[in-house]
Amino acid sequence: MSAGGSRLRNIGVILAGGVGTRVGLTIPKQLLKIAGKPVIEHTLASFQNTNEIDEIIVLMAPGYLDDVRALVSSRGFSKVTTVIEGGRTRNDSTRIALDAIGEEECNVLFHDAVRPLVTQRIIRECVNALRQYEAVDVGIPSADTIVVVDGSIITDIPDRARLRRGQTPQGFRLSTIRRAYELAWQDPNFAATDDCSVVLKYLPDVPIHLVDGSEHNMKVTDPVDLFIADKLFQLSSSSVERLAGAAAYEERLRGRVAVVFGGSYGIGSEIVAVLESYGATVFAFSRTTTNTFVEDPRDVDDALGKVYSDAGRIDFIVVTAGVLTTGALADCDDDTVDEMIAVNYVAPVQIARLGVQYLAETKGQLLLFTSSSYTRGRAGYSLYSSTKAAVVNLTQALADEWLDLGVRVNCINPERTATPMRTRAFGEEPRQDLLDAADVAQTSVDALVADVTGQVIDVRRPVTAVVGPASGAGEGVAVQAELREEEAAAEAAREHQSP
Asked: Cα separation of 407 and 361, whole Å?
């Protein structure tokens, strides 16, 4: 801790000095677009959105500093204080970063810019670990057997239970990493590919704590990595945090105006109730209560125009309306095909097109709904699954398209939820197998007040799973886990009409 008891500053150093020669690019790979955005933008967003990070320094490849500065300015990365040229090697870049940081004690997290899928959880755990340790690394177990070779001959096969695959960030107290490099630079034979190895070699008495990484926290190095990372972003989901009590929600929502299409029953009506309980003004539209057909742009335009005329603003537009007819595609008639596509996909498109002008005035948010079946089409649900996949793609595209307008676009992905409509369709089901519509509504409101965009936000029932010992690593432990996408998708045959 610094003088006076205040916590140390936490500085993220983004190492972006590579030029992508292995990927065969003419520009640095950190500027290549993945999921519609430059790789480095994804990375910077993770650090920007982590509350524990106070400042970000970027070390960029020569000749591209202005590109990064323009990106930082246009995307509002307020924590980025410095964009400077990186060094010829990783160690040279570390030296430049240490000089830029100065002498005041702080925590420093070095991260590869080309690991764009790093999560806020990993960053946060690194920062938290630095309260106790002076050096922190990130790693994951190896599912593969690791062999040691001499040429083409295997000389050793280490016990993989003791091996981890290293990732970043790597975190340090500034004084620790600075001292390690001071000793290293005195060594004429010094060579290292990462910073933890420098501490391990030159400050062997300093323990290096390991934070659990993630298989998704991959490094974009080879051409196939670009494809894999892009697919991971397409299928990625996130969560949003609950605010600290009703007063915090009321501060964000009182005086705001929300429009909910599909707000007469189920999740839609629960969203209306939650928003109103926190002081928002809510206008609900549906076929049954207002004779509003969401697939008809004239009805949508009339609804939005009426709200704007009455309330003078629109802060949130929520679309929960949807229809599901099961069966083989060849057995569907024209009316069924038209309705499924119109309500599940064309309606969100039209609502987005007609609603953006209002949301741009308030820097508001469009909130859409998908289904767990969006990740994989299922027999008997071809139209439903494909339209829900299209909604996810629409969310991601509009989030990028509307970024400069300040309009956020997110998508809720709930698993099977208890609603009156579901009971009518499927009869009584074990209550413990279903989400409560009120819980889905609360998560939806959490998304509305969160400063995120382009996210698919999962709502899952927590389950307790027992993880057994891996390679003799110890006894199994009980952990809280979420139902995985595969389980939810396998249950797609029981999906219902409105999310």
From this structure: 9
Share of the chain above pLDDT 90, in %: 63
Is residue 13 classed exposed, middle or buried when 0-12, 13-18 and 19+ CB atoms within 10 A define those classes?
A: buried
Q: Are 314 and 261 in contact (CB under 8 A)?
A: no
- The closest alpha carbon to 292, from 277, 275, 307, belongs to 307
Residues ≥6 apart with Cβ < 8 Å to 246: 277, 278
Model confidence at 470, pLDDT cuts 50, 70, 90, reads very low
The helix or strand, by DSSP H or E, that contains position 492, with its residue range, turns out to be none
> Which pairs from 125-130 meet CB under 8 Å and 24+ separation?
125/211, 125/212, 126/169, 126/171, 126/211, 127/10, 127/50, 127/52, 127/53, 127/171, 128/52, 129/171, 129/209, 129/211, 130/8, 130/10, 130/171, 130/172, 130/173
pTM: 0.68
Torsions phi, psi for 313 (to 5 deg): -170, 160
pLDDT in tens, 49-92: 999 999 999 999 999 999 999 999 988 899 999 999 999 888 88
231 C-beta neighbours (distance < 10 Å), count: 12
Tokens 């998508």 correspond to 411
Q: Determine if the peptide bond prior to 158 is cis (ω within 30°).
A: no
For 196-218, give the DSSP string.
HHHHHHH-TTS-EEEEE--TT--
**Residue range 415-443: average pLDDT?**
72
Q: How far apart are CA 177 and CA 191, in angstroms?
A: 15
Q: Which amino acid is at 430?
A: P
Strand partners, 409: 366
Percentage above 70 pLDDT, the chain: 86
How far is 117 from 231, CA to CA, in rounded Å? 11
Residue 433 one-letter amino acid:
D
Confidence of residue 181 (pLDDT cuts 50, 70, 90): very high
Q: How confident is the model at residue 25 (pLDDT cuts 50, 70, 90)?
A: low
Whether residue 61 contacts residue 18, with contact meaning beta carbons closer than 8 Å, is answered with yes
Residues comprising the chain, all counted? 499
How would you class 249 by CB atoms within 10 Å of its CB: exposed for 0-12, middle for 13-18, buried for 19 or more?
A: buried
Cα separation of 467 and 480, whole Å? 10
Integer Cα distance of 9 and 300 in angstroms: 49
**Predicted confidence band of residue 251 (pLDDT cuts 50, 70, 90):** very high
> Quick check: 317 pLDDT over 90?
yes
373-411 burial by CB neighbour count: b if 16+ within 10 A, else e? bbbebbeebbbbbbbbbbbbebbbebbbebbeeebbbbb
Q: How far apart are CA 35 and CA 392, in angstroms?
A: 12
DSSP assignment of 24-93, as one string? T-SS-GGGSEETTEEHHHHHHHHHHT-TT--EEEEEE-TT-HHHHHHHHHHHT-TTEEEEEE--SSHHHH
